[in-house]
């Protein structure tokens, strides 16, 4: 339904020669949108240090921050396979790099990590998140498997607001439940999976 709805709005905007935002919100104003750069993906046989230049490049270009990922297996699993069977990663090496990259980019540049559902152990997670929180990371994305129950369970054990998730949810009802989880800092809907009505409702949550 969402792609069909988007197509209708695109056609209507062409027929009536009006910007698509006119149909969604006639009162919208021109606001500056702040973007972060999403990159930092390397295989496990590489050093994290090769990402430093990438982070500095995006800082120089004026992005509000930069997001990277733990090393991925050299077997080059597909995104779907990694979500279904998340591969482990070396936490110590990752944290060592996190400390290093924070020093390199300074405290005035946001850093984020996309875990891609690869965290399995809650005890290790608390130590990891505490370290990232102390390094002033803006958020950690999709740390656990894409199940609401996982996030609810972790919420019982950890209170710092640091998590971003929700890109796979397909209706407002799930987002409404998700918004009540205290350690979720950002809700991140995928606009290709939701109707505009859902998106407007989600906007009011967080």
What's the structural blueprint in terms of helices and strands?
Elements: H1 2-15, H2 20-24, E1 37-38, H3 52-60, E2 65-68, H4 79-84, H5 91-105, E3 110-114, H6 122-134, E4 139-141, H7 148-155, E5 163-165, H8 172-178, E6 184-187, H9 196-203
Parallel strand pairs: 1-2, 2-3, 3-4, 4-5, 5-6
Walkthrough of the structure:
There is one protein chain. Helix content is 41%, strand content 10%. The chain contains 9 helices and 6 strands; from the N terminus they run ααβαβααβαβαβαβα. It has helices spanning 2-15, 20-24, 52-60, 79-84, 91-105, 122-134, 148-155, 172-178, 196-203, and strands at 37-38, 65-68, 110-114, 139-141, 163-165, 184-187. A 6-stranded parallel sheet has the order 1-2-3-4-5-6, covered by helices on one side. The chain is globular. The mean pLDDT is 90.
Label this structure with key terms.
alpha/beta; 9 helices; 6-stranded parallel β-sheet
Strand order in space, largest sheet: 1-2-3-4-5-6
Proportion of residues in β-strands: 5-15%
**Total of helices:** 9
Q: What is the H-and-E element order?
A: HHEHEHHEHEHEHEH
Outline type: globular
Mean pLDDT comes to: 90
Q: Structural class, from secondary structure content?
A: alpha/beta
- Low-pLDDT stretches are none
Report how far apart the termini are.
Answer: 24 Å
Query: Roughly how much helix do the residues carry, as a percent range?
Result: 40-55%
Strand count, sense and closure of the main sheet?
6 strands, parallel
Rg, Å, rounded: 19 Å
The number of E-state strands comes to: 6
């Amino acid at each position: 339904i969402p792609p069909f709805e988007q197509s209708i709005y695109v056609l209507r905007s062409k027929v009536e020669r009006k910007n698509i935002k006119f149909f969604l919100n006639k009162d919208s104003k021109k606001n500056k949108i702040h973007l972060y750069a999403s990159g930092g993906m390397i295989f496990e046989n590489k050093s994290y240090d090769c990402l430093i230049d990438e982070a500095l490049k995006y800082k120089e270009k004026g992005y509000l921050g930069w997001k990277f990922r733990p090393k991925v297996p050299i077997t080059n699993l597909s995104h779907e396979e990694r979500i279904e069977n998340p591969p482990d990663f070396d936490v110590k090496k990752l944290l060592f790099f996190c400390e290093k990259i924070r020093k390199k980019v300074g405290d005035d540049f946001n850093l984020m990590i996309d875990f891609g559902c690869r965290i399995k152990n809650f005890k290790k997670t608390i130590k990891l998140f505490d370290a990232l929180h102390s390094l002033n990371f803006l958020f950690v994305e999709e740390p656990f498997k894409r199940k609401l129950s996982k996030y609810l369970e972790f919420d019982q054990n950890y209170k710092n607001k640091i998590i971003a998730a929700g890109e796979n949810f397909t209706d407002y009802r799930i987002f409404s439940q998700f918004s009540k989880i205290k350690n979720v800092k950002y809700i991140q809907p995928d606009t290709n999976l939701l109707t505009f009505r859902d998106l407007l409702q989600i906007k009011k949550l967080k």
